[in-house]
């Protein structure tokens, strides 16, 4: 992109116009063969883009350049021998369905597949992107605007020889950098991983082996935490599993795995041993059992944060081990009725304390369909917990869902609740519930309205005040070629900085890390669009966001408004786009008051099949 001098703008206009004219007169279609072996197909859009921006903390700038969005794909000799695909894009404006704030993007993605269908198939892929006005989300809620860039590389290969163990290997690297809108405040993350898997059938057993290694590094931005927090970690996991079929439609499984890790806060090693068996002595009855011993159960507890890769900020107590046993039986009674009973027992040594508990209970599941009720489904059950001191209480689990049509009204709703189904350290969350529904109506032949709502929250938790809750509401109205919608979302509770530097909501934060964060994020927005003359599309969106995060006694607060308007005109293969966005963002982590950034663009492009 050329900008600044008059000569540079003139050169950019000349080059863009020349390329655009050449494409407009090009009429070749179909597939091109180069030599006898190479076949390619290329299509996309290419044109000129004029864009600019201005704000209270940035100078005014504008530029004229090329806009590109294309795909080049093909193969050499045979599609299974070597096939490839390249997808470049330059100064592409793209729309976010919720807040319409990604103003432009530049990057490329490519992949190559080799020797497909052979004993040694493989693939290589690479991608890099630069996005302007991208979003940072807090627990799923839009919160912060910024510019981002990132790259990823992956290579995988397999050896699939008859009579020998299969072998699958992959290696990947990824990195990303985000900058707060109008500032130099950055967050960074990078990762590398290596995975090796193998399987083999021997003496009636199916054997599986795996080896996974991860390296991670991140630096959190000061708009998320009052001070920048960084961390590095590496972990390795390897293990083997053996399964085989048993009589009475049964199966047997045996497994062992080891996890080792080094991080800025702690180093640990954990071994896990598992044995399982299942039987179906009658076609309506099935029984299963599982037993597990873990030498460091804190690792399993930390994984409940929802991240497959442990954050380097998690504190792992090496002096923790546990034995867990489960027996489950399920009986299909018939006519939509199923009865399940289970027994769980755990013995655990955690933080110099010996804990043991037993959980047993049963559930009844029933679903029924007929013309009067529409569709009804529910399940209900009881749970009892006991320790060596005696029973600790009786709990309840329940689920209810239904859909029904009342004339032109279409309704759906569901609710689930569980209480005392887990204990303090053995089963973690003690209570949670989730409910929501949708409502739709056809007002007339050209008008439709709909709305949906969903809420989920934790009830009884391990520590008072560590409740998590999230809400979302959407509504939409369509009339002929006009469309209107609104949305609201909120999420608050406890979160943990994940391995990639993002927030992962979990009520376990204070228990497994000193770097837990209390967060509260909210967003609401309006969106409208219309299509005129079947060629012209107009759309506009407004979004308001606010979020706060607190770690220990320090906290940050962010808020902002976003407005975007877009026009798109398509005439056969000619495509004209124009857009304007206005963003105001304020953060207590950044001095100097709100940042205001205005961006605009106009593009003229043509769709083509070059060859």
Task: Give a written overview of the molecule.
The protein has 611 residues and is mostly beta strands. Helices cover 5% and strands 70% of the residues. The chain contains three helices and 31 strands. The protein has helices at 6-25, 297-303, 509-512; strands at 2-3, 32-34, 38-55, 61-76, 82-92, 104-114, 122-138, 141-159, 166-180, 186-202, 205-219, 230-246, 250-263, 267-282, 285-294, 320-334, 337-350, 353-370, 374-387, 390-406, 409-419, 431-444, 447-458, 469-479, 482-497, 503-505, 516-532, 536-551, 554-571, 574-587, 595-609. The chain has a 28-stranded antiparallel barrel. The longest helix has 20 residues, at 6-25. Residues 1-29, 95-101, 304-308, 420-430 and 460-465 have low confidence and may be disordered.
List keywords for this structure.
single chain; disordered N terminus; mainly beta
Please render the helix and strand layout as text.
Layout: E1 2-3, H1 6-25, E2 32-34, E3 38-55, E4 61-76, E5 82-92, E6 104-114, E7 122-138, E8 141-159, E9 166-180, E10 186-202, E11 205-219, E12 230-246, E13 250-263, E14 267-282, E15 285-294, H2 297-303, E16 320-334, E17 337-350, E18 353-370, E19 374-387, E20 390-406, E21 409-419, E22 431-444, E23 447-458, E24 469-479, E25 482-497, E26 503-505, H3 509-512, E27 516-532, E28 536-551, E29 554-571, E30 574-587, E31 595-609
Antiparallel strand pairs: 1-4, 2-3, 3-4, 3-31, 4-5, 5-6, 6-7, 7-8, 8-9, 9-10, 10-11, 11-12, 12-13, 13-14, 14-15, 15-16, 16-17, 17-18, 18-19, 19-20, 20-21, 21-22, 22-23, 23-24, 24-25, 25-26, 25-27, 27-28, 28-29, 29-30, 30-31
């Amino acid at each position: 992109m050329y900008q600044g001098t008059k000569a540079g703008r003139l050169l950019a206009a000349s080059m863009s116009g020349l390329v655009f004219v050449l494409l407009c007169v090009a009429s070749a279609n179909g597939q091109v063969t180069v030599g006898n072996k190479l076949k390619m197909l290329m299509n996309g859009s290419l044109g000129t883009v004029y864009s600019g921006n201005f704000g209270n903390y940035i100078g005014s700038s504008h530029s004229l350049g090329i806009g590109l969005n294309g795909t080049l794909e093909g193969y050499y000799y045979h599609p299974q021998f070597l096939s490839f695909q390249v997808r470049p894009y330059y100064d592409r404006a793209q729309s976010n369905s919720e807040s319409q704030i990604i103003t432009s993007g530049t990057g490329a993605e490519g992949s190559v597949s080799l020797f497909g269908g052979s004993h040694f198939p493989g693939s290589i892929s690479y991608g890099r992107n630069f996005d302007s006005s991208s979003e940072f989300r807090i627990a799923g809620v839009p919160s912060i605007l910024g510019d981002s860039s990132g790259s990823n590389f992956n290579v995988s290969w397999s050896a699939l020889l008859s009579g020998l163990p299969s072998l699958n290997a992959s290696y990947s690297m990824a990195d990303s950098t985000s900058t707060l809108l109008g500032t130099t405040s950055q967050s960074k993350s990078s990762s590398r991983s290596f995975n090796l898997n193998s399987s083999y059938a021997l003496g009636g057993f199916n054997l599986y082996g795996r080896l996974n290694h991860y390296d991670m590094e991140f630096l959190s931005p000061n708009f998320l935490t009052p001070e920048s927090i960084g961390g590095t970690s590496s972990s390795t996991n390897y293990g083997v599993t053996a399964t085989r079929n048993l009589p009475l439609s049964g199966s047997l499984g045996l497994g062992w795995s080891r996890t080792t890790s080094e991080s800025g806060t702690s180093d640990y090693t954990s071994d896990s041993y598992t044995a399982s068996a299942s039987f179906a002595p009658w076609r309506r009855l099935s029984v299963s059992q599982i037993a597990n011993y873990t030498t460091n159960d804190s690792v399993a507890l930390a994984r409940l944060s929802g991240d497959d890769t442990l954050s380097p900020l998690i504190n792992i107590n090496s002096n923790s081990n546990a034995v867990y046993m489960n027996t489950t039986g399920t009986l299909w009674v018939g006519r939509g009725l199923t009865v399940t009973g289970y027994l769980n027992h755990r013995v655990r040594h955690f933080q110099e304390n010996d804990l043991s508990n037993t959980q047993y209970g049963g559930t009844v599941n029933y679903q029924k369909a007929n013309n009067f009720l529409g569709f009804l489904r529910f399940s209900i059950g009881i749970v009892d917990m006991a320790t060596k001191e005696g029973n600790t209480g009786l709990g309840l689990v329940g689920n209810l869902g239904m859909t029904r049509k009342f004339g032109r009204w279409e309704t759906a709703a569901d609710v689930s609740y569980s209480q005392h189904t887990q204990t303090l350290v053995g089963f973690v969350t003690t209570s949670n519930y989730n409910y929501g529904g949708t409502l739709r109506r056809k007002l007339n032949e050209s008008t439709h309205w709909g709305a949906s709502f969903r809420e989920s929250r934790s009830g009884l938790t391990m520590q008072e005040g560590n409740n998590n809750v999230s809400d979302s509401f959407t509504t939409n109205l369509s009339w002929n070629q006009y469309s209107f919608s609104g949305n609201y979302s909120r999420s608050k509770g406890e979160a943990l900085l994940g391995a990639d530097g993002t927030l992962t909501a979990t009520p376990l934060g204070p228990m497994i890390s000193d770097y837990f964060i209390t967060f509260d994020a909210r967003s609401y927005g309006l969106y409208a669009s219309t299509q005129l003359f079947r060629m012209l599309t107009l759309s506009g969106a407004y979004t308001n966001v606010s979020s706060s995060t607190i770690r220990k006694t320090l906290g940050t607060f962010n808020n902002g408004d976003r407005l975007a308007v877009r026009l798109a005109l398509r005439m056969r293969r000619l495509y004209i786009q124009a857009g304007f966005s206005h963003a105001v963002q304020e953060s207590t982590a950044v001095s100097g008051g709100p940042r205001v950034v205005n961006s605009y663009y106009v593009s003229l492009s043509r769709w083509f099949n070059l060859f």
